[in-house]
Amino acid sequence: TPRMDGSIWVGPNAVLAGSREGYSWSSYDTKDLIEMASFRGLWKLAVPNLSYGLKEVAKSALLPLQLADLQRFIPEVKMTDLVRGSAGVRAQAMRTDGTLCDDFEFDESCPGMLHVRNAPSPAATSSLAIADLVVERAADQFKL
Length: 144
Fold this sequence. Notes:
about 140 residues
């Protein structure tokens, strides 16, 4: 990803974090891990994709593996070109069947309430369009 300062970032990738606020490899929360491990949807997603997922985790943790992957596309990239960047955490809603929710999910099951779940990227760049959609759904729900 080209940046405004002229640098180029590789990524982002997406690997499972050890906690809801896990911004580093050493960040984990036992309660969050137990909750993740007990959610059957995670297992339904993880098991068939285990090999791919483990490769992504390894590439995220080990720069030499990331370099080898990058060199398939840009052979002249060297280890000295790589600098580890900051990490972020983005929530991703998942259904119990293991499928990811790719878009907004509206829950209108509680009278007088409209819940908007799952704000996938690029949520911030489309915030006005999202607001229009929420207003439209709220107007329908509440007869405004």
